[in-house]
Amino acid sequence: FALEQTGGSYIRNDFAEPADCAAAIIDQLGGLSFKVPCDMEYEDPVEGLTISLKAGSQWLSGETAMQVLRYADYENRDISRLAVLREMAISMMTSINKITTLAHAPDLYKSLKNGISTNLRLADFTDNLDLIFRIGDFEVVNYEYPGKMTVENGDPMFVPDTAKAISALLQYRS
Question: Could you give the CA distance from residue 96 to residue 138 in angstroms, rounded to a whole number?
Answer without folding.
Answer: 12
